[in-house]
Every structure is written in C-alpha cells, then in structure tokens.
Amino acid sequence: MGVEVGKVEDQELTARLRLDVAALVGALGIAAAWPVSAYELSPFLIPALLAAAGSATLVLLRPEYGIAVVAALAPLTNLQLGGSQGMKPVQFLLPALAGGVVVYAALVGRERSGARAASGLSIAIFLFLGAAVASSVQALDPAETVKKLIVLLTAAGVFYATLEICRGQRERLVVVGGVLAGLLIAAGQGVLQQYLGQVGEYGIVADGSVVGRIQGSFGHPNQYGGFVAVLVPLATAVALTRGFAAPQRWLAGMALLLALPAITFTYARGAIVALVFGSLLWLAILRPRHALLVAVVVGLAATALAPAALKERFDPDEGTSGDITLRADIWSAALDIYSREPLLGVGLNNFGEAYRTLPTTLDSTSQRRLLHQSQVLVPPHAQNLYLNVLAEEGIIGFAAFACFAFAAVAACFRGVREADPLGRAVALGAGAGLFTLAVHSLLEVTLIGEVALPLFALLAVVASSAGSDREATRSPSRA
What we know:
Blueprint: H1 2-40, H2 45-61, H3 63-73, H4 89-108, H5 113-117, H6 119-137, H7 146-165, H8 169-196, E1 203-206, E2 209-212, H9 221-239, H10 246-264, H11 269-286, H12 288-305, H13 308-313, H14 321-340, H15 351-356, H16 385-415, H17 421-440, H18 452-474
Antiparallel strand pairs: 1-2
C-alpha cells in the first residue's frame, strides 16, 4: 500500500513539474516572440492576444465577470494606442468578449422566471435592433452602418447574456460592479486629463480666455459628459444604500467622487442640465418629497462650488443664440432628410451622407446645403436623438425606438417596487439614468455608442431582478 501511495505522489509531482516547465517554456516563447512581432507587425499584437486569451478563460470560468468587464471597458472603446495612427484594441475586444458570453449563455441557458418577466423588454430590443438592420440594408452607404450595428449588436448581446447567466443576486451585483467600474474608469481618465492639462481640441471662451474641455476617450466632450451623467444616478443610489457590501459602496462612492468634477470640466451644458432635470423628474414621479430636497441641495451646491467658467457658460447674457440657430438648422435638415425616406430612413449612421445631398435651399437642386447657411461642414448626426432616429431609420425605426424606451422605463418602474432593497436601488439609479439620457438626447445622439453597453446590462439586471422577486412572491416555498 505504501509503495502505491508513493507512486501516486511521484506521478503528481512529475505532472506538476511538467506543468511548471511548460509554463516556463511558454513564457520564454512569448518573451522571445514579442520583439519580433513588435518590429514586424505591431507592438500591441502579443498583448492583444494575451488579453483575448485571458478574456476567453474568464468567460468560461466566470461568465458574469465577462459581462462586467464589457461594461467596465465601454468608456475606453475608442482609446487609441500608438498615436494618431495607432490601434484601438478595446474596440475589437468588446464585441469578441460579448460574443463569447452570448455563446456561453446560449449553450448553458435555460428557461427561467427572470427571462419570462423580461420578455416585453426583450421583444422591444429585438424590434429596435431589427429596425436598425432593415434601415441599414437599404442605406445610402451601407459601409457607414457597420460600426453602429456592431455597437448595437454587442449591447443586445450583453442584455441577452445578462438575462441568461445572472440568475441570482450575486451574479447581478457583479454586473452592477462592472458598470460602476466603468464610471470610475471614465471619470478617473477625465480628471487625470484635467490635472495633466491634456484637454481636447474643443474649448470654450470664458472671461476672455480659452478654457480646455476634457473628453476622455470619446470623440467630443458632450458625448463624454453624457456617458458620465447617465451613470451618476446609479453610483449615488448604490453609495447611499446600506444593503450593498462595503466594497461595492466604496466603489460607487469613489466613482461618484470623480464623476462630479469630471462632468464639470467637460463644460457640457446639455449633460449637466440633463443629469439634474432628468433625475429630478424621475424622483418627482416616484418620491416627490425627495425630489424637492434634492433640488434644493443641487441648487446650493451649484451656486457655491461651480467654477466661474461653468457659471459663465450658463450665463444667458453671454449669448447662445448662435448655438441655438445652428442646432435649429440641423434639426430642420433632419426633417428634410426624413421627408425623402419616410419609412426606413437613409440608414444607420448615414445622416452625414444624406446631409451632403441636401441643396442650399429647398427650391434649388444644384447647390450644396451649407451648415448654418455659411459653413461647408457636414454634421455627423442631427444633434437630437429623436430626429436622428427619424431621419436614419424612418417612422418604422422611430416606432421601434419608442417601444424600447417605453419598455425600459416600465421595467425600471416595476423594479423600484420590488421587495429586495438592492434591486430597488439599482432600478432607481437605472431609471434616473434613463431620464437623464432622455433629456440629454434632445441635444445629442449618444444612445448607440459607448453608453449602450452598461445601459443594456443594467436594464437586464433590473428586469431579471424584478422577475425573480415576483416569482419568489408567488412561490415562497421555492424561494
């Protein structure tokens, strides 16, 4: 017996030694291959492959963490490494990681109460996605639709995977933690840019001097400010709810602590106004007394803590008539584009292509339309989500978008009435974020972008949590 035990121990030791040797050989091989690949191809090839391998392993072992990583890295989607001609590795990593999670969910998923409860929202997202695909098939330039379609498909995949994989509260809280980590990353990057003076190319004039605006890895400070604004209510709700574990409340508190100065230094009036009025409107519907208290606190804080440049930005005497008339001109162009293709629009992300074909005046077909009747510029979108959807996806796409918006708000409204205090807090923050997005969308187009990934993940968490709560109420013995 002792001889057999000794043989087993020797075999286990040999196996461990072989594994260690294989790991050492693999590490040496990677170390030797990296200089060659960096010189011949790209210095980011080996790190990207390692990140992909690590992500695949993470999806197989803990798929809910894969979803959380997608939500956390969303603000870095357009992070460019290696200068202006460098790679955007996160832009390729997120769809691949989300696709892996979706495949895993399809293989192991089974029917459950949370998925049934979210059926209305799932159908609305399917219709929204289907309308986008239909409009893209007959787009003016189908190639322009690819990037936005990938974002929308990735967000829908995250929603589906979250419903199928996150069956319990622990998994759902992991996803919420990923969303909060995304806000922390976005806000921290912006604050670091402000500290280092690495502001973007877009600035404002305040007190006779040019003031730079931070924008993270986003294309414009307004888009960056909108992303931060949508997630601030969730961080506030989690930080103020005692039922969450201390690490998650600390994560939410740190994210909130960095997000407030980050959105301030974007000087994005639309995002700031949307955060205040959107959150207050949601609170006024659910808890009017809280809304009044929050309004007073926000007013006092804005008066005492807002920097002078931001106050001047909101000063009506400084004159914003030029900006208003410019937006009005773009909105008018959106309606002109819609009138040409009223059913399915001109195609996702094709607003600029359609704008190029507009004449300067409606009774002239030989002149190119000038932006604000003076500039040879082409706006990338309609500066208004609702008009942009109408122009790019037509009345069919707008109807699908309206169904999605109604279903999302309804899911959050049901969520704030569930028994679980943690689920209520997440639904409260997600609902305020939706209303913030709705107000901000009057001036910007950010839904089919970086914010879609954490937003769709949150909606799945809210719908799944509410469905599980109702199932537990109907079947207490099973719960």
